[in-house]
Design goal:
The protein is α/β, with parallel strands linked by helices and about 400 residues long. It contains 20 helices and 13 strands. It has an eight-stranded mixed beta sheet, with helices on both faces. The structure holds adenosine-5'-diphosphate (ADP) and magnesium ion. The site of adenosine-5'-diphosphate (ADP) has 18 residues, from helix 8 and helix 17.
């Protein structure tokens, strides 16, 4: 192998551009299978060579490295010793898949204990190879990163005044204070947002800085820009000057959400409907869209239209329709039964009118669920929050390889 090829292989890998892979295989069939897979998949400059273990040693000693190393141990009498020898010349972080002809559970276990990702017994099919490669490399990393990413819940009111901000604030409180989860609450009503006010907090300039400087978004910048509302609960809010009302076209929202979901289990967006239309990327990023309406006819119409929009922008998002009653019953109200019937699905919750609790909350600078904990409205909101409770962790399924080896 040429020195330049070695240099290329040694360049730091960029997972997004595909996996870098080196394979040293003793037989032509496996080599052809892997070459075919490499053509189909977007692997970065794969090196697929003959020669098995010895060749691997030579390349690695020359300074070559890759994300994934596949090495054929079938021609060595001491596979375990060979793998341990490889470890000395391998870059830390390289995942190794070994192939061999010995079908022995004890050997398999020892190899896994010595740190290899997988051991496949030859002959190996393209499927076996692919599964082992996916498992050992980026696909697994990507899948676990995806699983670790926080959930984005966008709360959108069918109309102003239906209680969307109240719902967002109380949900954020319940999830962080009662369920112990890390929550970021983002007030996307940039001009008239009221979440900071509801919590008796000053907005400051932090969020404005974030919106104006998307390229600076990183964990530290966001921490400084956020307002600490309570333990495990941060808030982003701003009071943009009305006289200079501007449209945010800075592209800050996507990187903001990407960063927030890394560090928070829940990212709650109080998303005014006008903002949802102006910045479709916000609703598109939602895992859950919580559409809030009251019993007015216009609210019923617009909650349905927002549901259609959500389906278009975020087809994978779970949509929950919530009925909130910010006013005492009025004669113009749509009868609740008719409301649910027209929606065509049961409401995800029904928060009763509770003037006393709402007044207590406003007076105390705290969410309703904190100051009127056992009010009927708080109970309805708590029930809703339980719908977002963390799923129980499942134990990792048994590794498939052992099963394959044992059959
Ligand atoms: N279930 C309720 N009972 C009594 N008052 C409510 C209820 N929900 C909301 N409110 C009050 O209605 C007003 C509007 O609520 P808000 O959350 O700001 O609406 P939106 O964000 O949809 O414009 C607020 O004063 C709030 O306290
Ligand atoms: Mg609001």
């Amino acid at each position: 192998m040429s020195a330049s090829a070695v240099r290329k292989l040694s360049e730091p890998s960029d997972a997004a551009e595909g996996l870098s892979l080196m394979a040293f295989l003793a037989d032509d069939v496996t080599r052809q299978t892997l070459s075919r897979l490499a053509g189909e998949r977007n692997w970065r400059e794969p090196v697929i060579e003959g020669g098995g273990l010895e060749a691997a040693h030579r390349y690695l000693a020359d300074g070559a490295s890759s994300d994934l190393l596949i090495v054929d141990l079938s021609e060595t009498s001491d596979p375990l010793g060979a793998i341990n020898g490889l470890a000395d010349v391998c870059e830390p972080g390289t995942r190794v898949i070994a192939l061999g002809t010995t079908n022995d559970v004890k050997l398999f276990r020892s190899l896994i204990e010595s740190g290899i990702a997988d051991y496949l017994v030859k002959p190996v099919s393209a499927d076996d190879l692919l599964r082992a490669i996916d498992h050992a490399s980026g696909v697994r990393a990507a899948a676990s990163a995806e699983a670790a990413r926080g959930q984005i819940i966008a709360v959108v009111g069918a109309r102003g005044g239906v209680g969307a901000s109240t719902v967002a604030l109380n949900l954020a409180w319940l999830l962080s204070q009662e369920q112990g989860r890390k929550v970021a609450l983002v007030d996307l009503d940039l001009h008239f947002g009221s979440l900071a006010l509801s919590l008796d907090l000053e907005t400051g300039n932090g969020f404005r800085d974030v919106l104006q400087n998307p390229s600076r978004i990183d964990p530290l910048f966001l921490e400084r820009a956020s307002i600490r509302a309570a333990e495990r609960l941060i808030l982003f809010g701003t009071e943009e000057p009305l006289a200079t009302a501007r449209h945010w076209d800075s592209g800050a929202f996507k990187p903001l959400l990407a960063e927030l979901t890394k560090a928070h289990e829940i990212v709650l967006l109080d998303l005014p409907r006008a903002m949802a239309l102006e910045h479709p990327e916000l609703l598109a990023a939602a895992d859950v869209a919580l559409l809030v309406g009251d019993l007015s006819l216009s609210s019923l119409r617009d909650i349905l239209r927002l549901k259609t929009l959500t389906r278009e922008l975020a087809p994978k998002a779970r949509t929950t329709l919530l009925l909130n009653r910010p006013r005492p019953p009025g004669k113009n109200d749509v009868p609740p039964a008719e409301f649910a019937k027209t929606l065509g699905e049961p409401v995800g919750g029904d928060v009763p009118y509770d003037a006393k609790a709402a007044a207590q909350a406003a007076g105390g600078g705290k969410p309703l669920v904190a100051v009127a904990k056992s009010s009927k409205a708080a109970q309805a909101l708590r029930k809703l929050a339980l719908g977002f409770a963390a799923p129980k962790k499942r134990s990792t399924p048994r590794r498939g390889l052992l099963a394959r080896l044992l059959k």
